[in-house]
Design a protein that fits this description.
The complex is a heterodimer of chains A (347) and B (671).
Chain A (H helix, E strand, L loop, with lengths): L1 H15 L14 E6 L9 E6 L4 E3 L2 H6 L7 E9 L2 E8 L4 E6 L5 E6 L1 E2 L2 E2 L2 E7 L2 E6 L3 E6 L4 E7 L4 E7 L2 E6 L11 E6 L4 E7 L4 E6 L5 E5 L9 E6 L4 E6 L3 E7 L2 E6 L4 E6 L4 E2 L5 E2 L6 E7 L2 E6 L6 E8 L4 E9 L1 E7 L1
Chain B lengths: L5 E4 L2 E4 L40 E5 H7 L4 H5 L5 E5 L7 E5 L7 E5 L2 E2 L18 E8 L16 E7 L9 E9 L3 E12 L3 E12 L3 E4 L8 E4 L4 E13 L3 E16 L12 E18 L2 E18 L9 E19 L6 E15 L7 E15 L2 E18 L2 E18 L7 E12 L3 H5 L11 E17 L3 E24 L6 E24 L2 E16 L18 E11 L2 E10 L2 E2 L9 E2 L2 E13 L5 E9 L7 E3 L2 E2 L4 E9 L2
Parallel strand pairs in B: 6-9
Antiparallel strand pairs in B: 1-2, 3-8, 4-5, 6-7, 8-9, 10-11, 10-37, 11-12, 12-15, 13-14, 15-16, 16-17, 17-18, 18-19, 19-20, 20-21, 21-22, 22-23, 23-24, 24-25, 25-26, 26-27, 27-28, 28-29, 29-30, 30-33, 31-32, 33-34, 34-37, 35-36
Chain lengths: 347, 671
Amino acid sequence: MKNLLITGLMVLLFSCKKDDPVVVPEKYDNGLILLNEGLFQQNNASISFYDIQQGESYQQVFQAENNRGLGDTANNFEKYTLGDSTYLIIAVDISSQLEIVHAGSLKSVAQIPVFNGSIAREPRRVLVAGDKAYSCNYDGTVSVVDLNTYKITNTITVGQNPDGMLIVDNRLYVANSGGLNYPVYDSTMSVIDLNTETLISTFETRINSSAMLKDSEGDIYLLSNGNYSDVAPAMLHIDTETNQVLQQFDVSIGGWDLKGEWLYYYDFDLQGIYRFNTLSETFENMQLLDAAGHTTFYGLYILGNDLFTVDANDYVNSSTVRCYDLNGNHKYEFTAGLNTTDLILNE
Amino acid sequence: MAIPKIYLIGGIAIAMYFNCYSQDTTMKHKKLEVVPVIEKAKQSEFITDISSSCPSYTLSKEKMIDLGTVDIGDAMRYVPGVQLKDYGGIGGIKTVSFRSLGAAHTSVSLDHYLQPNTQTGSINLSAFETFGMSQLQFTSGQPASMDAMPSAYVLANHIAVAASIMETDSVLRWKVYQNMSSIHAYESGVLCSVPIKKKAFIGFQGFGRYGSGQYPFVSTLSGDEEEQIRTNADLLSIKGRAVAGYRWKNASIAANFSYYKNDQLLPGAVILFNPFNDQELHQSNYRADVNYTLTKKDWHLRTTAFSQSNETDYYDPTFLNAQGFIRSNYQQQISAAGMMLSRKLKYRSERLFAGVDGTYSQLESDQFTARPKRMAVNTVVGISKWLGKWKVEGNLTHQFIQDVARSSDTLKTINYSKFSPYISIGVLPFDQQNIRFRFFYKRVFRMPTFNDLYYNFIGNTNLLPEDAQLFNGGGTWGKSFGKEQQQHRVELNVDAFYNRIKNKIVAIPTKDLFNWSMQNIGKTEVKGVEAGLAYQLKKNEWEYAVTTAHIFNVSIDITDPESPSYGHQIPYTPLYASTQSLSIAFKGYKITTNLLYTGKRYTLNENIPSNQLNAFTDWNIGVEKTFSFKKNRKLGIHLRMMNVLNKNYEVIRSFPMPGRYYQFTLNVGNL
């Protein structure tokens, strides 16, 4: 009993001890900045930093630099330069904020609430062109932000639950997923003229579409996620001159990026990374990389001449980020935060 | 305190004062009790039952007042080894885990009527107010009362609640209750029990809980110390219960009807930088029960039947879909009938028993295209027997479940059938000392719920039951000493436990983030020690009591050696927790203070700083005064400062608890 009491006191003492403070790097240059989505209602969206030279990864760096949390569910971020400074703008979905930080220090410079009265608009993706940022919001709108004043200057109505954006020739393409409308998903693309900030066109694509890439010819590749039961995912090839779907490819893609004419993608069904040629519009048969060892494949990014994959480890454990060269040879790997959802190279 | 009486059983002297009260009920029924209920609470400050062969804890209504609890969820927090999942505030859902076995491993009965929920498998304990309750008993292993229905033997843990309304007297008994909290939460209650001649009685109980539930809190995540207000928490819930009973020489019959209506706004998780919530929850439940009890010589028979209807409606008026809102409705009907027969053996705490009950459940909901229906039959046979200094208890249960559910255009049938044993051994090795060593083993199969099997998209009809094995071994010691003017009582218990859980039913993503599914994948190993010490002193008109209980619980994830969380403490489970209480009573005045410490926990599987929830201490202190009048009438006034340390600790991440607040309670009546 005496021993037990002593053990009890020890546990009590140890549990009162403060945990070690978060270690942060001296600067955030020459490394990868990683946005971690966190989990819904856990308020644990975060930023990690990976120092490529030192091979060190740092967690919770936004919290450490700003002494507060980033918010709940951060989906996407974008790097931009305005004047002499470089910034990151982050879409924080459930907190319904656009957060702007200095890219070099990760110190917050602005936090822009995105609300319709008391209803959260829920920004999902963010893009920057010139001194304006555009966020597509899950309430069916696009917000226009003046990056000089950090004010929302316009709100444009699009389709249901937009979840992807791309700019082609000063036109903003917005993919309307209708993701909250099961079983009747949206299947349209909205096109906004960025000069007038008005909706100029809406055309049919395929149900539940989200991510987009633009190739060197100005064509769009769009992912349709299907309905998770009898309609399979697909990739669409869209001509932006005519705003028409040229072709549909029956492939289940879970992460992709472009490098020159090559579209690198992860095939859910084959559990591997493959390539697609955007000039010849053909798939390369050979597997570039076997990714079956990933527990939960959650993203593919090409930065410079490196290919990065994110393994979300069942969505409840810290993500593993693996770096490969473009031939699929493993270079290094490190641990990031919970559900890493975007990567930016800071040089 | 009375001088302990000594009973001789099998040649062993046992101090009965705190002992053996729990195993046998019929022999101790008061003449005036028309309907057999769990026998009256022991008049003790101590909640740990040292005479039981399995972990057993009893809270009397007086103890629940001393703890400042308003519902049985609050009360369960003071049971060592229990972790209350508490979302905070006036209408927050409360469920318990005990020694790392989750909420679906605990069944609840009210006056021996089981309170099932086939859809979720767990019972919201905040819907059971402590007003009108005469006793709460929590057991792990086997229920304590011989009137427990067979289904109560199937799960690992059981909460048996007894209502005051079922205790009758030769005179009309009544009580009026009012509770007010400075977190804008209020409760009103009235109950009466009316004897009709000598053989019958009727009773009525009405209860309301209401208020805006608003309270200030400080969120540390937002960086500033700015105070925010927890809003969208308005609640109005009303509950009515009517009972009637009739007693013959050896038999009795009783009926119960209850109605519950709850309308509340849901405050939701506190989301950083987004303070708006507007979801609503509406519930209405009906229930009717009847039971018949017959006692003849050594035989005791209890039969019972009930039928209940539960309707739940969830509404989100600003959901971002095309129609701009979402509404989900769930209608569950459950009916059951069963019997339990027992025969007393040589001594009063010895018996043979057997019983069976059948439960039919069905669920209609827009979230369940399967529209499942379930027939469950639970059977138990058991024995308790003294063999010299050894007391051996055992039972064998069998669960049979047949589900019929839609699958596309056809009906699909799923069957489950499982036997599981329970055995416990208690030994009193010394004639002169009340030292008891105890051991129990139980195998548990926790059947998948309607949610697990059939919830649209995530349900999985291939699930196996969750499989748990429980071991407990320890010792207890109790001693009373002193003279008439100065009486001491000391109790001590130390138990070690080991649980192993496999085929845990958890939701995991399958193909991608959108395709989650229930799977049998979790494995947990639980090792721990629980130790408690209690001391009571009665000196002249003063009464002092102090208790302390400590629990160490190492519950690690052993699912997948490749996983980053392999070997880590499972979520929401502290390595160490403790409760302490102190009370001083003098001539109707009483000062009580309770302190509950819960060590740091992790919200997710990985034990890393970003998943950590800080340790917390919840301390309350209260004063009570009871004025006594003629005809046994009493007026009790109770003022309590809750959460004295004023920290908005979180039991569940993003759900901060109220800081310091005050509670005022008034009880008037003759019971």
